[in-house]
Amino acid sequence: MLHFMEIELRKSYMKHYIQASCIASIVLLVLIYFVAFAAQVEQEPGFQQYTNIYLLTSTVCMIFFSIITAMMYWRVVMTAYKEHQSNSVSLNTLLLSKMVWMLCFSTIAMMCSIIPSFVVFSVTEMFFPIVHDTLTADVLFTFIKTFLVFTCCVNGIGMIAMRVGLRKKSIFITILTAVVLCAVSGNVSIAIYGNDQLNLALSGVMIAAVFIVILELLSKIGRLQTR
After folding, report:
1. What is the gyration radius of the CA atoms in the chain, in angstroms?
2. Is 28 exposed, middle or buried (0-12, 13-18, 19+ CB in 10 A)?
3. pTM
4. Domain ranges of the chain
5. Which pairs from 124-129 meet CB under 8 Å and 24+ separation?
6. How would residue 127 be classed by pLDDT, with cut points 50, 70 and 90?
7. 3-state secondary structure string, 112-164?
8. Is 70 exceeded by the pLDDT of residue 147?
9. Residues 23-52, mean pLDDT to the nearest whole number
């Protein structure tokens, strides 16, 4: 397993994904401070609240990761097809292992990008507050739950967009589908913020989408190989 992970991480597209995740973390931190400072200067009450700042910036992060994750899923599937042609490993086995790997990796990458940014901002706010609000444990706990929902959305959107793109045989369609799904899920996530039941339902839909796409791909490959 460790050997498989090492091989995958050496691939160029994985290195690009890691670099994009690192850049996203820095950009996100800058965006958080920009929103906080802008709200203070413009006296914008809506963004003088930690809840709204975290929700806006995490939504932007979700959109970014949804798009690049969809592109990564596309590359992973294409790579699996090419590698299958050069060795005797079952395509189903190869594809499933790569999809599960990418699922785990994209989740960890998003966590490693967004959590440090929010931790740094939250810590500095304790000593040098910019926002005229109180950062409570309840605010942080609600954000953590919403972040987990966003993580499910990233993988669900990535999977669906990848499958649509494969059907149309176009990476452009993959990206376009991801953008459209981000717009829909982003608005839904903001609308149901703090509602545990609806957040759980949205997470369930996205998790179900991941499993459906994987099973549908494996089933299609199985039918093609039996012909």
Report:
1. 19
2. buried
3. 0.82
4. 1-225
5. 125/50
6. confident
7. HHHHHHHHHHHHHHHHCCCCCCCCCHHHHHHHHHHHHHHHHHHHHHHHHHHHH
8. yes
9. 83
